[in-house]
Automatic annotation (TrEMBL):
This is Lon proteolytic domain-containing protein. Residues 150-244 form the Lon proteolytic domain. One of its GO terms (molecular function) is serine-type endopeptidase activity. Signal peptide: none annotated. GO terms for biological process: protein catabolic process; proteolysis. It comes from the Bacteria. Pfam families: Lon_C. InterPro entries: Lon_proteolytic (IPR008269), Lon_Prtase (IPR027065), Ribosomal_Su5_D2-typ_SF (IPR020568), Ribsml_uS5_D2-typ_fold_subgr (IPR014721). Gene3D superfamilies: 3.30.230.10.
Amino acid sequence: MSSRTVAIAACSALVVALLAVAGFAPLPVTIAEPGLTANVLGSRSGAKVITVTGAPVRRTAGQLRMVTISATEPWAAIHLSDVVGAWFRTDETALPHDAVYPATSVKQVEAQNNAEMRQSQDAATAAALRHLKLSPSKVKIGLRLSGVGGPSAGLMFTLGIIDLIDGDGHGGDLTGGRDIAGTGTITTAGAVGAVGGVQLKEQAARRDGATVFLVPRAECTDAKAVTPAGLRVVPVDTLDQALSALAAIDAGGRTATC
């Protein structure tokens, strides 16, 4: 056997060994999939998601659904086979572990998610009352959504508060009786921001019956890459745009879509 042949055989064996190690070694990756959805106009775990004190509350029809993604636990071992499997599926995606879990411990992750949720709720309350021209010193809003963290429900919380107190401003529902889902952060001034995971979230929305999905305009490209059949994806930049889009849909008019 020539020295060249021996060298090639040795290199081949090394490559095979490295591939074997790569196949079984855990990777710094998290697998995400469509998560739960919750109607902010209703109840969860036996408690109303939105409570209002200091203003009358309407009886509403339809649903306003916030949506989430579900990720593997921060300590889960993800291997190359899992990543390859996710690559060929539309209901799974592989994400850098640190992008999903930037904190170093489970308690820190939970604390960060809870802090972002509280900030989101405060901004949603301020944006809704600002739109309704109601004083926060007179009208108190309670927001409770157990088991969910992060800032992505801001837009839907805001719409839910407005629907419960004022509806469409003419005695009707913002939803027009439809199942409306959406995602996006909110600022006190009513600006809607991107949150990520929109492809998985729209699948969760359609799975749970939504026919309209409000999405931050900045994520429109991602949203239209894999749009479930029967779901109308509507891009918005602001709370006012979201309200206008819902009014147009209820009236049977045209709206921008992704």
